[in-house]
Specification:
single chain, 479 residues, alpha+beta, Methyltransferase, Cobalt-precorrin-4 Transmethylase, Domain 2, Heat Shock Protein 90, 35% helix
Length: 479
């Protein structure tokens, strides 16, 4: 913060009717132990009170909030051979952001500690957690109702609302975000001046204004960053495409990371992937034309799903699209929130509802409840093996396989296709039959016994049920 912003902030804090759970005024009481306790208490209380920061201010008297100045010089203080600031950092667990500002206010020396709120767990100082109770600093263990609120906050953290970068100028916002894409993708007119642009970005919750500076939210950065590398905590979230030679990972042909925000880069990413996938030449009466082996709509929807449903709390992992000769794998960080067998019928549960909502508004992904259904429909139209949905401990993977005849498919391939076809028919208001499954595999009536055997194997696996002895079939979850 510059001097003007610091002065505005002190005006705002002095205007408070009294000290609070997230603000403490002092004059010269600079005991290091007490300062550490205040930092712990203010960090924990700022979390409870939903404040962006807690503040410890030296040079403001407590009663009438008059600026009287302070003799405290934090950068001159030492604990043993350590500077005060470094010593405090070593005593706080977990690490919490603390910034110290020394400046003149009304010709008086002021010292301001700006303290980030606790996140995921209480902040301890020298092994003890503190909290503000009214204007007093108390041990947190003596106030379990406040401690439980901090742990509850940890469960309620919304990735999109958190900040990717703080305290930057308006010009820096417009440099870091590809703001013309915001207006183009949302199909709204681009304002004619900077103030109008910033106001709309704030309205869309892509940025937040604080005093004279701006914060860019994770929602704004992950969707509209001109370059994700400029955002330290999101740099590793760039989507990656890796093309391998053959059917394994022994030899990489090419690897590419998409550095722009997801919304900015989405069409480019999907087109790049589709261009790298195999195609077949088809000849009609007049022209030859290239026909994709994999349906473009399915590729588009699965990439969008991977971006939306990833777990952003998993560091060092990003959405990865791997292309092999015989398949394509799309992987995102985070285990699925629902059973993979229920992907077709279950209402999707997203970790990132704001992100999903914004991408739907931009027509990047399908409306809620329709995505996987359309993927399976396209797979059947293209006569491909059923996709495989895999749940790992910290990832979700979808595998699309290149064309195989029924004879070439393994038993698990066939059972998976039968189950998915049955689900698709049911959510479409219909029932699977021997005939519908033959049509799905594009085989004739003489293969009736082959399909009957497959249906029986799928029933035995517990995935489908016969519907009222009518030679119609429904998924296990519909029985």
């Amino acid at each position: 913060m510059d001097k003007e912003e610091l002065n505005i902030l002190i005006d705002e804090l002095r205007a408070l009717p009294h000290e609070s759970e997230w603000v403490e005024f002092k004059i010269n009481n600079s005991n290091p132990q007490r300062i550490g306790e205040y930092i712990s208490a203010l960090a924990n209380s700022a979390c409870i009170e939903n404040k962006e920061f807690g503040y410890l201010v030296f040079g403001i008297e407590n009663d009438k909030h008059q600026a009287v100045g302070t003799d405290f010089k934090p950068r001159a203080e030492k604990i043993g051979n350590q500077e005060l600031e470094n010593w405090l950092a070593t005593q706080l667990e977990p690490k919490v952001g603390v910034k110290i500002f020394e400046f003149d206010y009304q010709s008086k020396n002021i010292v301001l500690f700006q303290i980030e709120p606790a996140s995921n767990r209480p902040v301890l100082f020298r092994g003890e957690a503190y909290v503000r109770v009214g204007t007093y600093t108390k041990k947190l263990k003596d106030h379990p109702e406040k401690e439980s609120k901090i742990w509850q906050k940890a469960k309620q953290i919304v990735f999109e609302k958190d900040f990717a970068i703080r305290n930057i100028s308006a010009d820096k916002v417009l440099e870091l975000l590809d703001y013309p894409s915001v207006f183009k993708l949302l199909n709204i007119p681009l304002p004619t001046n900077k103030e109008g642009i910033l106001a709309r970005l704030e309205e869309e919750k892509l940025i937040v204004k604080r005093l004279l500076k701006y914060h860019i939210t994770n929602l704004g950065a992950i969707l509209f960053a001109a370059n994700l590398d400029k955002f330290e905590n999101l740099a590793r979230k760039s989507s990656r495409v890796i093309i391998y030679k053959g059917n394994n990972k022994l030899q990489t042909i090419k690897e590419q990371a998409e550095k722009s925000g997801y919304a900015v880069a989405f069409e480019r990413l999907v087109n790049y992937v589709n261009d790298k996938l195999p195609s077949n030449e088809e000849i009609d009466r007049v022209f030859r034309k290239e026909v994709r082996v994999y349906p473009e709509l399915a590729i588009r929807e699965l990439i969008a799903n991977a971006l939306i449903h990833q777990d952003f709390s998993i560091r060092g992992m990003s959405v990865m699209i791997e292309i092999f000769d015989n398949r394509i794998e799309i992987t995102n960080p985070g285990a699925p929130l629902i059973d993979t067998k229920r992907f077709i019928d279950h209402s999707p549960e997203s970790r990132n509802e704001m992100l999903a909502g914004m991408m739907r508004r931009m027509n990047i992904c399908e409306e809620r409840d329709s995505g996987v259904d359309k993927v399976i429909t396209q797979i059947e139209v293209f006569q491909l093996p059923a996709p495989e949905f895999i749940a790992g401990d910290n990832y979700t993977r979808v595998v699309l396989y290149s064309p195989k005849s029924l004879r070439q498919m393994s038993k698990p391939d066939k059972i998976r296709a039968c189950y998915q076809h049955c689900c698709l028919k049911y959510v479409s208001g219909d029932y699977m039959s021997n005939q519908s499954l033959r049509e799905r595999f594009d085989i004739d009536k003489k293969s009736y016994p082959v399909i009957s055997r497959l249906i029986r194997e799928t029933i035995d696996s517990g995935l489908i049920l016969e519907y009222e002895s009518s030679r119609m079939y429904i998924p296990f979850w519909a029985g």
